[in-house]
Request: fold
Amino acid sequence: MNKGILNFLSIILISAHSYGQKFFMPEGITYKKLENGFRYYIVPNGEPGKIGIYLLSDTGSFVEKQEERGVAHFLEHMVFKGSKNYPGNETSEALERMGLRIGRDYNGSVNDTHTEYRVFIPENNKETLKQTLRLMNDWCFNLQMDSTDLEVEKKVVIEEIKLRRGGGTPFVIGTYLEGHNGLGSKEQINSVTSKDVKDFYHKYYTADQLALVIYGKVDEKKVSRYIHKLYGKLPRATDKTDNKYLDLSRETIVNGNYQNENSEMLVLGFKTRDFPVVDLPSYKKDLIYKVFCEMLENRINQLSNSDLERVRANIAVPFTGNLWFNFRLEAKKDASYNNMLKNFNYVIAQARRFGFLQEEINFFVNKLLKRYTSALGSADNYFGAAQLHFFKGEMPISTQDKVKYTQEIANTITPRDFIEVLNSFTDLNKTILFDKHANAFQAGFNEAYILGAIKQIDKNTKVAPYQFSEPSNQFEIRNNTNLPEVRIENLNPKSIKKKVKLGDYLYLLEYDNGIKVVVNNAPNSQTQIKIVSKHGLNNIPEKDRALFKFTADYLDEAFGDYNQEEARDLRRKLRVYKNLELGNTDYELQLKGSNQNFQQLIKVFNLIVNNQPQLKVDEVQKRIDRFYKSPNNSNDTYQGYTNKILGKGLDTPSIEKPIIDENIIGRFLEYNQWFKRSLKDAYIYVGGELPEDVDELISTYIATIQPVVFNTKIDETQPPLKTEKPAIKDISWNKKSTKSSFMFASVSSKPITFKDQLISEGIAEYGYKRMFQILRKKYGYVYSLGASSHTNVSKNLSALSIRYIVEDEANVEAAQKAMIDEVLYPMSQGELSDDDTTIIKALLEKDYVASFYETDRVSSDYLRWGLDYGKLYTMKDFQKMVRKISKEDIERYMKRLINLEAYFILVQK
Reply:
């Protein structure tokens, strides 16, 4: 048999096999649909240390009729106001006892198409997980919706309405949803009754319209059994609510009142029904639609002598069930809508007459393929895919499978695949938007003219064949195959002296030369390399601090055998971003990249840290002169006082127009080497979705850096600012509101321990809670408030800052009195209930366990604790320390720290 025929038959067989298969739920996702219609998903690759629990409703604000506006959002507020098994305040109190704070750890939100309730809890706490599932179960079917709570919540929602601007999406212009932003109006909210909310709740919060997503590491079998036990009892829905969202494709709308803030625009939307991607035919259809829009966008943008400044075309899904071929045509100066429409029609007529070209199809399919291929090294976002499966029925697809399916389609797709959509899409019902007050508008540009012109597209015979050229403004998709190679000498890797496991995704590498590298390969962690050092400006002479702090960031703009321009170009192409933080007692040098460029990132890191730059006096002088002329060169009075109270303040002389000479340059270059390379006094952090040979790369390009000694005896610090009585300092901050910060500091005769730090943070959280209860809920004096703690190990100092902002000047004195009498005084007496102790410890466990792998925490704070306390703790260490803290420990520490005989109030007004 002819070889060509064999190849042809093999393609047919492969395609027939693929097209006969449906997509299945990827391995790793647990998905079940209970008999009552309730669905749940367990997605294990969440953020390490944290479990996200999401209760999803496929009901959003766009199910609302005109008289129901705002009810979906109002109902979301009522979820936290009590239920059958958690009446009244018991819902919020139960969440609080688990260490969860509204906004940060739990919240709800409503958009056009769905409602989401989310709770984030720490790993390895079975009771907290069960309690959360019980709470959410009550939210599904057992809300109380007390009429008193309803009236209180109306005020909250109305305040939200005042703050939010915008009149909804333009996709619904011309329908009963026009202008609907999800909140409703003040009048509509005031007219909402308890019956309205309950009716909405019972109609839309049924088992078949709800789903649960658990995102994180759990015992899947045990959790599945518990979900079946709880949620299997929810009653099956008796009334079907199919097609609850408006079908936009049923009518054509032409509207001349559309105004775009940025340009005069003609919007052409061709409307059909959306479809889920569940098998290869639907995957191919989705790909054809995407490529179809990209090809038309490219052709229209390349049209010569047009009235179009820019065109954007895409497949839009305005909301559930709807799909648009969406074209947004921006006008040039002196353009007319008539000509813009003619330009669009010309391109469509051209494509219909001559067809799309194979080379342009190949280009845009391969562009999509490159995008998927470049993401192969990243973890798949199965959480978002699970949500999409619930809302739309779309099957989650791994990036690897996207590459496979797209490659298969790329090998077989032809211009014939686009004929049907090309010839039929303009026959669909349309939404056409323009501004009849714009300069582009001319009399006669109306519905009849527009629809008639589109209907006559095929009669446009004066069209020439299209010559394909690539888009001029395309964004280059980078991957391992087109990254520039960093020029660096061959290095022999150092041997690893010790490898210590610190967590499931975290470990420490130690080397004989004193270098210590903490490696974090947790899923979805940011790719970066960072030096965190215990040295700071306090280790160099006073006369050099201000200038060196400004100059330090410019010292390594050239490195290796790259000059300044070449080095900048290399970093730009590799997308390597440098950041330097230099404080009085700390130094951090950070390089950020991506998981595609890690090998090049670590080489650049080696070159920068090993770099011994040469600086010219005149270049440094010019930069410094510009700095001192800039308006940003001013001191922060509030921060200055805070630093002094915390023992972090240093005297930095004010220098005007400094004269730079070779001696200054020489000292600065020496300081630069000390800060970068005093690696025995630092940790190096390496994080990201790292390659398998990461240890070898670290041993080659980090461990081979020769550490230096920070060669100065200077360790200048100032003692904490003390006061023998309450001291008030007024500070101007040029705002109408008034911010009051109550600051307490206590120096111990014993060394500060990590347990002390934990207790101090717990007290800050307790202070925040007390403020919220008294100043916010009881009196309504304040809207914004905050609390934080600080420990200065070198000074044996613990400090606390509790602060709030008062908007109404008339409440400033009353708020201060209530703060002292009802918040701080009980704290100074060590008054603490058993419930308060439980909450404090739960808050600490939540922060130190659930947030353990958060990039800012593990790449900075975690390493500083290691430098301060001489040990890198594990997640289990944190959990044990928190659980061993007693009520007496907190009371004792709080009485010592909250001293009402001696504290500071910084008042900014």
